[in-house]
Specification:
The protein is of the alpha/beta class. Helices cover 36% and strands 19% of the residues. 55% of the residues are buried.
Length: 321
């Protein structure tokens, strides 16, 4: 998640190129309602294996460690992260493309993955930013969202899910410089293409070590989907306000696309009322390592990551029927 106020330069002019970059369950999970699929059988959202999500996080940590301690825009760690995600999606049968842009004098990339089938005039998107800040590996911010979205996409492939709507997943570059990659993607679409996106779901920081359970209050249908999931777990939620306008849903929302998402908190401090609902430490930030070198694999609450990962899958299945 980008800083609310940033002194860093934003985009220095995006160049439109589509290119390929070479290289490479918690207890109490809600049960999704069954939905018909192409062969007439019923499909339910799967439980997302937390071990798989954590394995992706470990890979992102290793990439950062091998590349100067970060996965930032324009750095080798970012490209290696993108290659890792892309290779997984290609092997699973997604149609992937890499969108290139320029920001702050460096080349950046978005990764877009489409699952074959579904009505291309009704597109459900789920996305997250893949870049870190330069000061750390960015495992909660935003390896957590990136890994959960990746594992949800892989779950779609494992299930050979055939929803009514078309599914598209995205990993954004240069979010930390001011939502550059997602803004570039939205601006690259014509109005007709934007109108085909029936919903964009954003996941930025979903494994905070002192977590809250926050739901975006933008599109009512998407908001209700996430609230219903957590109500099924008996976990109260709050409306997300800390990151409003600070993550990649903002360009979509500004273009008139329905948006929603989940968030577990950044540098705001947990109140006593929130600790009473969710546990954790009163008066401490939701993520004490926000934008710091200590945002490593040790900076993750596995329960929050597991619940939010399952919630992503639930929403993808529910909204694409």
């Amino acid at each position: 998640m980008k800083l609310l106020l940033s002194g860093r330069a934003l985009t220095a002019g995006a160049v439109a190129v589509a290119t390929l970059v070479t290289g490479g369950s918690a207890a109490g999970a809600a049960t999704a309602p069954a939905h018909p699929v192409a062969d007439g059988t019923a499909a339910a959202a799967p439980d997302i294996p937390i071990a798989n999500v954590k394995a992706h996080l470990s890979q992102l940590q290793s990439i950062a460690t091998a590349n100067g301690g970060n996965r930032a825009h324009g750095r080798a760690g970012y490209q290696a992260s993108l290659n890792y995600v892309k290779a997984k999606l290609d092997a699973a049968g997604f149609t992937t493309r890499v969108q290139q842009f320029t920001a702050s004098g460096r080349t950046g990339y978005n990764l877009i993955a489409d699952w074959p089938g579904g009505d291309v005039n009704q597109v459900v998107m789920a996305g997250s930013h893949l870049d870190s800040v330069t000061s750390g590996p960015g495992i909660n911010d935003n390896g957590s969202g990136s890994s959960a979205v990746l594992e949800t996409a892989l779950a779609v492939a494992r299930a050979d899910y055939r929803p009514t709507k078309h599914l598209r997943f995205a990993w954004w570059g240069a979010e930390e410089l001011g939502l550059v990659g997602s803004r570039y993607y939205v601006n690259s679409l014509g109005s007709a293409e934007r109108a085909k996106i029936s919903g964009y779901l954003n996941f930025d920081m979903i494994g905070s070590p002192n977590p809250g359970y926050f739901v975006y209050d933008d599109d009512p249908t998407i908001e209700k989907t996430f609230k219903d999931y957590y109500a099924g777990l008996g976990i109260p939620t709050e409306i997300e306000t800390e990151g409003d306008g600070r993550s990649d849903h903002a360009p979509f929302k500004n273009a008139g696309v329905p948006v929603g998402g989940l968030f577990s908190g950044a540098d705001y401090r947990k109140t006593s009322a929130q600790a009473a609902k969710w546990g954790g430490t009163v008066g401490q930030p939701f993520d004490r390592c926000y934008h710091s070198s200590c945002d490593t694999t040790a900076n993750i609450d596995a329960t929050a990551l597991d619940r939010n990962s399952d919630a992503i899958a639930y929403a993808v299945w529910e909204l694409s029927q």
